[in-house]
Design brief:
Order of helices and strands of chain A: HHEEEEEEHHEEEEEH
Number of strands of chain B: 11
Radius of gyration of chain B: 35 Å
Distance between the termini of chain A: 72 Å
Distance between the termini of chain B: 31 Å
Largest sheet of chain A: 11 strands, antiparallel
Strand content of chain B: 5-15%
Shape of chain A: globular
Number of strands of chain A: 11
Largest sheet of chain B: 5 strands, antiparallel
Oligomer: heterodimer
Helix content of chain B: 55-70%
Chain lengths: 208, 776
Amino acid sequence: MRILFCLFFAFLSFSTFAKDTLENVMARMKPAQAISINYQEIRKLGLLSETWKGTGTFYAVLPDVMLKEQQSPEKEIMGIKGAQLYYYHPGNDQKHQAELEDEDAVSFQVAAFKGLMNGDLAFLKNRYSLDFKTTNKDWQLRLTPRQNTDSETNTTVIMRGLPEQVANKLELLLADGDRTEYTLTPSTQGAAVKTKVQQLLTLLEAPE
Amino acid sequence: MTHSGKIKGVFLLVLSALVLLAVTTTHFKTDISAFFIAGDNAEEILLASEIQSGTLSRRTILSIGSLEKKPPSQSFVKQFSQSLKAIPGVTDVWKADETRDAVKALETLHLPYAAQLYSRNPEAELNTLFNPQGLVDRAAGLKQALLSPQAAIVKKVALHDPLLLALNGFKSQFASLQATQKTVQPYANLILETTYSGMDVPEQTRIQKEIQRLFAEQTKASNPDGLSYQLEMTGVPIFAAATQNMIQADVQFISTFSTVVLAVLFFWIFRSFSVFFWVSCLLVAVLTVSVLVTDLLFGSIHGIAMAIGGTLAGICVDYPLHALVHAQAVESQYRAKAIISLWPGMLLGGVTTLIGYLALSFSGYPGFQQVAVFAATGILVALLLTRYVLPHLITGITKTYNHEHFTLVWIKFCTRFRPALLSIVLVLAGISAYTLSELHWLEDLQQLTPELDYLKVKDAEIRSRMLSIEPGRFVLVSAGDTESALQKAEQVYQRLDQVKAKGELGEYFGLYPWILSQQQQSYNAQLLTQQLTPSLLKQWQTALLTNGLSVEHLGQFHYAAKQNLSLQQVLQSPIGHLLDNQIIIKPEQTLIIIWLTEHQPEALQSALADLPHVQYFSQRDLLNKLSVSYQKRSQLLLLLGLSAILLVLFIRYRSLWKALETLAPALLSMLILLGIWALSGMPLSFLHLVGFLMVIAICTDYGIFYQENPDGNIRLTYQSIFVSMLTNIGAFGCLNFVNTSTLKTLALCVMYGLILGFLLCPIMIKHDWKQDQPES
């Protein structure tokens, strides 16, 4: 009997995670309002002798503002607003601003994130081949660039999440083996995030 | 057919052939700068030619914005720039703030030459870097760069050049660009380069129309953001097209309007359309031969030379008009004789006019040499046609002579009150001479074309959306060959760094980091190789370890000595087009242009003063300096011309008094006119000089005719002067209705001068009534 119950609940839970399709994962990913997500970052780069670790917060105000505020090991802010890329390193007092070019590595990754955050499946399918998998433990979406010969932009993006949950892992794999992994924890939403984003943008846009 | 009938037939036939020849073979130019710009030294001449036909002249700036003041989408700009590249005659289109090409150049071209190009000041650079702390700092910087958004490019550089030497120059270049770039603007600016010179107006107009068409098509077809896009353009091709269109419209207007005005005048004066027809034919013959001769001698004729030369028609028409008035007063069998009796006076008038125009040709304005040839030919042809052809063209005209012409009233009034009138004129002349010191010259040539102000405003607006480089002011370095020019430029960079450090210069953009002289490259490589010792390598590896960087991948130096990077390699690479507005290479000379942002001109001038063949250069100042030097020369030549005219008159009359008396109406009308100008506070330009010259030339003719009074009938002579004055005023009066303010200025000057000259003849030249022959 007990086994039967177990089997029954197992079936129920299977039917629950079976609901995770690419479409509804994408719909779930799209925030209804301004959102912030805390992250832990791990980078394994060929030119570094040891793994690099960082922490911070991502902010997104759709459709076209995304910010990454790194808190450790040192403060650093990177932001995208429309086609503009901003970078600020308070420690070195370094500030850059540039227009994103379609072909460069950063804008290639930014375009992927924007596509994911905005749930723009058509755009993503145009640039990447999408491989969506579910298991009883999680779902995984793998974006592999289509016909890309340029190693700079040949970045595979992997997102993972628990069943019926938003993504909690983000992985970037470069053609040369360099790898970046983010562990994501949703933080706050709404007006407070919007205010914070505005503060950060003001800081980034202010002349040196 | 009568003898005169045959001559008329032959004349019309030859005239038709000449017109056909002129229309089919003449090469016209409309480039306004070619008319005015030449330059006093080799650098300026080369630069002037670049302004006229070089790369800079072939570029149009296209600024795409939107009514909503939002930046246009990248895809829209990209698609538009792709379609622009397909226009025949367009060589390239790129974004004004393009840095991608520069990054690509760094990767593909400059990376292997890191040892050669790492610094303009290698000792200081290596001293800072090659010590334990310097190396640790560099390794920390490398790590930060590898974790930054620029990681992709840094990774590529670091594998070949772990010390990131290749990035040194580029870092400062990008920092300078960053500092001078405007904050985010709602515009995308494109540079479009054509194979055709900016002054090739027909081709540039075609390209501009095609740009507008493509833009309209694309905004209609795809508008991803729903914005209302707008396109604005500026650059030499835009100015050239606008100027030519304006001049063309004016020329069409003048040719139609003045023909009607002259036809009405002729009918009113001579009561005959055939007179108008034949005089017009003579004028067409004069202008056609002048065009052909000028084209033959110069290979082309400039539109402005033709316009100024065309006003010569006003002088040339005087000869047939004098002849006509005198000939029409007698029966047809005496007309040839009447015209022959005028010949010495006409010839003298022709010679004095010629002297004036020849003087003008030495003023320095390249276009005025054409004007002088045009005028000399015209005067000669007009004289010969009046003397040998005109008598046969007017055989059928009925005799008309107005005994009581109203001009007689003025002659009699002047005779009666001559002392009083003379006193008034002399007082006026005295006042005018006194006010001459108040005269001032136009200091800025741009003020000559206020009707193009809307383009200048647009130009300033569009340029302000781009880098804050001052487009017309820069440092000019020149040398006999490219290597020497690069070496000299490197000396200049050091001086500019000092000025920058004092805060008197924002930024400057030279040829570094793209290229250094071969001498500097070899020195850099040699110095680096000497200092790359095994112990230094060990220190570097320690620094890498300290910062958690891979010794395996970054722990070796690969700065083996190799050949230097050549300028040719750079110019042939994709970034070549970024540099061709900075270097001009000719077989005998190389010019390097160093662009500047906001700066203090005096500080730069004094910092560069002791460097030979280096000058702080302002395009506008050059034009205005040239203008001033032309004006000074023109004044001197005008005075020399006047002296020569006086000498010719003295030779003719054997009396200095009589020569002065003959010249007086012309001289005084000019003097009084100058006085009025001085009192009005309006500035004088070279165009006024042309106007004064024409006033002197025509009024001297009036004086000669009045003085010579060839057939002993002063009423008839003055009547003929009146007729010529009236037709001239009619022709010049038309210029008052055109758009080009320069032509209006010329018209105003000449009209008032001629009226004054005409009125002054009976006052200044004493007439002996006893010598007047009884009227026939």
